[in-house]
UniProtKB/TrEMBL annotation:
The keyword Transmembrane helix applies. It comes from the Bacteria. InterPro entries: YczE/YyaS-like. The chain crosses the membrane at residues 21-43, 63-82, 89-109, 121-143, 164-183, 189-211. This is Uncharacterized membrane protein YczE. It comes from Maledivibacter halophilus. Keywords: Membrane, Transmembrane, Transmembrane helix. The keyword Membrane applies. Pfam families: DUF6198.
């Protein structure tokens, strides 16, 4: 389907087949937990969540879940202008709404929990690993993933560049935009920390490594109905 997840090391028959819907659901849940853990670490949020978080801080009427959905809606609008596709993007926005609900759920679970000392770094590392793995599953599942991930996937196809390259550029843009919004509104920098910079530099490479590794042993197969929706969108 996409060049950046293809591999010649094993043919299709030699790899384990897993339902794409399972990968999509697991990736969705892992991403929500990962974002929450990285926020709780206090070391800086993930790059894709830096803009939603700063917008949440700017507006007292919007929650993190709301700003996350609005940001993803903006990304889908860009893709629609570039590709003129709409079917799979509508499905992706539905998943974005679900992800926002999951994010709100995790936020309430961890609300009031204070994390100090070395535990902050451990929590961030766990969040980073879960985020990279969750994004990888959603890219490889061959179904419309979250707008964050479908944006990276389609831009990689359009530009004919590797996922890690597009992901790193996207992350850098998010961080710079967050810094600008933060400074304009608060005359200081919020949402961005050492953890954000770490994620910006290494998430793309981590995803590409996981894609290459998983693609050697596993192939994701959509059920007939979702496969029909995806390929006819």
């Amino acid at each position: 389907m996409t060049k950046f997840i293809s591999s010649n090391s094993n043919d299709t028959k030699s790899r384990i087949k897993l339902y794409s819907e399972v990968a999509l659901l697991v990736g969705l849940v892992l991403n929500g937990l990962a974002v929450t853990l990285m926020i709780k670490s206090g070391l800086g949020v993930s790059t894709i969540s830096s803009i939603p978080l700063i917008l949440d801080l700017v507006s007292s009427k919007l929650t993190l879940g709301m700003t996350t959905f609005l940001f993803q809606l903006f990304l889908m609008a860009i893709l629609f202008v570039v590709t003129r596709k709409i079917g799979q993007y509508v499905i992706s926005l539905g998943l974005a709404a679900l992800f926002s609900i999951i994010l709100e759920f995790y936020s309430r679970i961890f609300d009031g929990i204070l994390i100090n000392g070395i535990a902050r770094y451990l929590i961030f590392l766990v969040g980073f690993i879960l985020l990279a793995f969750g994004i990888t599953l959603m890219i490889m599942c061959k179904l419309p993933p979250l707008p964050f991930d479908i944006f990276i996937r389609d831009m990689a196809l359009i530009s004919k560049k590797k996922v890690r390259t597009v992901k790193t550029i996207f992350d850098a843009t998010c961080v710079l935009s967050t810094i600008l919004i933060s400074y304009v509104n608060f005359k200081s920098i919020y949402s961005v920390g050492i953890g954000t910079i770490f994620a910006m530099v290494f998430t793309g490479s981590a995803i590409q490594w996981l894609i290459d590794l998983i693609n050697r042993y596993i192939i994701f197969v959509p059920r007939a109905y979702t496969k029909f929706i995806y390929h006819n969108s």
